[in-house]
Model the fold of this input.
Amino acid sequence: MLIYMTDRIYLDYNATAPLAPEVAEAMRPWLQGRAANPSSVHADGRAARAVVEQSRGELAALLGADAEVVFTSGGTEADNLAVLGATGWPPAGHIVISAVEHPAVAEPAQRLRQSGVDVDVLPVDANGRADPAALRELLRPDTRLVSIMAANNEIGTLQPVAEICEVAHAHGVPVHCDAVQAAAWCDLPQLLGAADLVSLSAHKIGGPPGIGALVLRGSVDLTPQLVGGGQQKGRRPGTEPTALIVGFGAAARRVRNRRPEESGRVAELAARTAAALLEGCPTTRLTVSAERLPNTVHVCFRGCPGDALVARLDLDGVAVSAGSACHSGVTHASPVLGAIGLDPEDALGALRISLGYDTVEQEAVEATARIVGAVDAVRRAVGTVSP
Ligand code: PLP
Done:
């Protein structure tokens, strides 16, 4: 008999966070019965323009800086705009990216390499952290950009972005920082130092999917990647989606109000969850021990294939993510786990549990019990533990 559980527990906030009720409320007037093209000169257009500008202000305030906010369709487009935009058209020169960047940075860099741009990869240690001193060795007179993420989406490691900026700026090189995962949890003005370009995404912070931003703080020569309109000073043409932008602004305001308390509360919850998993499951380790996102618990359950565990937990009503994926019958560890040199046996049993502002203690405790049970069940099924 199949038992479907209704008490589902969502612990996959690094994938996406639910739309916050106050964000939905702020968006509602701009979703229904109102024309809202911020470029129109009439009163309706001007009203839309005013709220778009307000949202720009909310995002700049999140970064604690005077900044030019360029709205994009999400974090992916913001990253693409930074990496491709900084190398000009036709692309030329040299860039450096870290070894643990999101594919939204790594894949445009790969495309640039195919077009003749030199791309160097800044290595990371076993915790996934880059060394600013190692960057110094890679910089060249023709380096156009250094791209380093603030926090890793899988293992949660925070990067020494401020120090990276110091090294790069000493050589006159601008820095792009993908702060998509850090935005809900970190004091961005402190973490990002003097980063010149910052990528953000609304749906990771309780806003709607489909809207992000590249925030320009320094004077970076940026070639637009879309052409065909003058909106946003031509940096990213296309009619701005007013309702999504209003939602993004409301989500940024919510983060400013709630982050200081939530990051402490959730860090404690995550630490208790990690400790209970280590205690409840034999041959289990935390993947990294460096300073990391307060909401992210990344664990390796040896001998327990992560994709099977995620599927089992889904049936048990817990939404989490694996660190490895099965393609055509072969299971591959994620490139991030490869970059930190994780033992392949550990990597195959990697699980990411990511908490959010809505996660309460009872859910974390219940999810932990279900995870301990599921790890045991999967290990028995694959023969790691005798039935
Ligand atoms: N950068 C990081 C670090 C991410 O985690 C993600 C999404 O998972 C993105 C970029 C892409 O953001 P979006 O989903 O808004 O395109």
Summary: Residues 52 and 242 are 6 Å apart (CA to CA). The radius of gyration is 22 Å.
